[in-house]
Write a structure and sequence with these properties.
single chain; alpha+beta; Multidrug-efflux Transporter Regulator, Chain: A, Domain 2; 3 helices; 35% helix
Length: 84
């Protein structure tokens, strides 16, 4: 099976963000990108983008501004916030 590649514009449309936001994700959120020496053009592998989105969409539980590592079968007290 051949790996599908997307341009910056195609990838931004695929995940539903503006291309500037996509660039921010590359620089600040470690979105995987392929960049070839001597070229300014970025290419994104669809399978790596899917993995990145899936990992970022896992809920995280914060209690009193502290990230809880263990989230299964626990009862929580005061504040419970789920963030994607």
């Amino acid at each position: 099976m051949k790996t599908q590649h997307m341009t910056t514009k195609e990838t931004a449309e695929y995940i539903g963000v503006h291309p500037d936001t996509l660039r921010k994700y590359v620089h600040q959120e470690h979105l995987p990108v392929l960049r070839f020496p001597g070229r300014r053009k970025w290419m994104f592998r669809k399978d790596l983008v899917d993995q990145w989105v899936e990992k970022r969409s896992e809920p995280q539980v914060y209690i009193n501004d502290q990230l809880e590592k263990e989230t299964e079968n626990q009862e929580y007290g005061q504040i419970r916030v789920l963030q994607p």
